[in-house]
Amino acid sequence: SSGASCEFAQLAGAVDADGLRTQIDELATFSDTPAPSVTRILYTENDISARTYIKDSMKSAGLTVREDAIGNIFGRWQGTEETSVVGTGSHVDAIPYAGKYDGVVGVLGAIEAIRALRKVGFTPRRSLEVIMFTSEEPTRFGFGCLGSRAMAGSRNIYEILEGAMDKDNISFTEAARTAGYLKEGEDLKSVAVTNETYSGFVELHIEQGPTLENEGIAIGIITAIAAPASLKVDFKGDGGHAGAVLMPFRNDAGLAAAELAVAVEQHVLASGSIDTVGTTGVMQIHPGAVNSIPREAHLEIDVRDIDEDRRDMVVEKIHQSAKDISNRRNVELQSFDVVNQDPPAQSGATIVEAATSASDELGFKSKHMISRAYHDSLFMSRITPTGMIFIPCHKGYSHRPDEYSSMEDIVRGVQVLALTLAKLSHK
Ligand code: GLV
Ligand code: MN
Ligand code: MN
Ligand code: MN
């Protein structure tokens, strides 16, 4: 059958906005911080509760649920043909004091898209698979997209995870076991999937920027994802008494850190492009007492660009500044670690095409755009043609408690996702 074309006239009415709203609200209650904020950190009790919620939701949508060793959750709607699968999904972990839509819309929305496709009598040729990825956010172990990186078999990821510790010195392995994953005898490498597994992947996500809302456009179709890098830097000085050590005899690690944070901004601004961004999001000094000269300083720096070479040049300049500051201030540069330095991703033409025509056929205005935030799609694009569907979010607010997308916008996104999946399933 033409499959994708016969039933979609009814798709608009098939998405259950109230049901989806209820699920988004219920999932938001699994949080380490009070509403309206949402904090859900990898392998904690609330993360585990959220996982159970997602598995139940998948099951009630008639999906066959399975989990891998790292805790990626897969819900499959078996197609009529044994061939490569169409994937969709996102994450439900949330950084400290985040909102309830980032990631969640792409998981619960995907399950709702499946329900809607069932309602309109759709029959998948290729199987459709909803994926909830483990830890898209970097909160607990310092780098993000653990589940999708591991699926894509990204170089070194398995060794890095085996050596990773959180801030309380709990190892990745121990944390995973606590949550029921990475069981005795299970190997992280088993998470990798072959390039033949998926025929395509599409992720629905809130924009996390203001463009769609400002321009009154319902749907953004992502053509590329900017390249993220993150750095960890440690300075060490001698510290000492804030009254007794005279200025010429100090080597203040806190000032070295402050200077480096300013240098990050300078190097980013000097790149010549508005697309280069840099953030020193973590700056800690030790011992952190008013009458003590900072003896240690720890920084975490995020640098991104759509141009990988330009991003790498900024990273190199930051490294050079760290060495210069260390020499000039006689502060030891204890470590300068590039935690991740990922290439950008280009969307697959087949996915962009399917999402664009889905949007057109449903009568929604869409535009092609890039994603400045990273997503699991950055890694899925390494193993299959990948694309993303963005919906507006209020003022572009994200990673904050007042993040908001209207149900109308979410439902439009779910409809476009459903039709895109239908098309790809019959391709
Ligand atoms: C993802 O959360 C990002 O930091 O872009
Ligand atoms: Mn996020
Ligand atoms: Mn996200
Ligand atoms: Mn994220």
Keywords:
15 strands; 427 residues; 2 domains; 35% helix; Alpha-Beta Plaits; nine-stranded mixed sheet; alpha/beta; binds manganese (II) ion; Aminopeptidase; 13 helices; four-stranded antiparallel sheet; binds glyoxylic acid; elongated
User: Could you tell me which ligands this complex binds, including any ions or cofactors?
Assistant: glyoxylic acid, manganese (II) ion
Total separate domains: 2
Q: Which percent range describes the beta-strand content?
A: 15-25%
Q: Low-confidence parts lasting 5 or more residues at pLDDT below 50?
A: none
CATH superfamily membership of the largest domain: Zn peptidases
Determine the number of helices (DSSP H or I, runs of at least 4 residues): 13
- The multimeric state of the shown protein is single chain
Coarse shape: elongated
How far the N terminus sits from the C terminus, by CA atoms, comes to: 12 Å
Q: Which sheet architecture does the biggest sheet show? A: 9 strands, mixed
SSE pattern, N- to C-terminal: HHEHEEEEHEHHHEHEEHEEHEEHEHEH
What is the level-2 CATH architecture name of the largest domain?
3-Layer(aba) Sandwich
**Strand pairing plus helix content: what structural class?**
alpha/beta
CATH class of the largest domain: Alpha Beta
Give the overall average pLDDT.
96
Relative helix content: 25-40%
Task: Assign the CATH topology of the largest domain.
Answer: Aminopeptidase
According to DSSP, the number of beta strands is 15
What is the radius of gyration computed over CA atoms, rounded to a whole number of angstroms? 23 Å
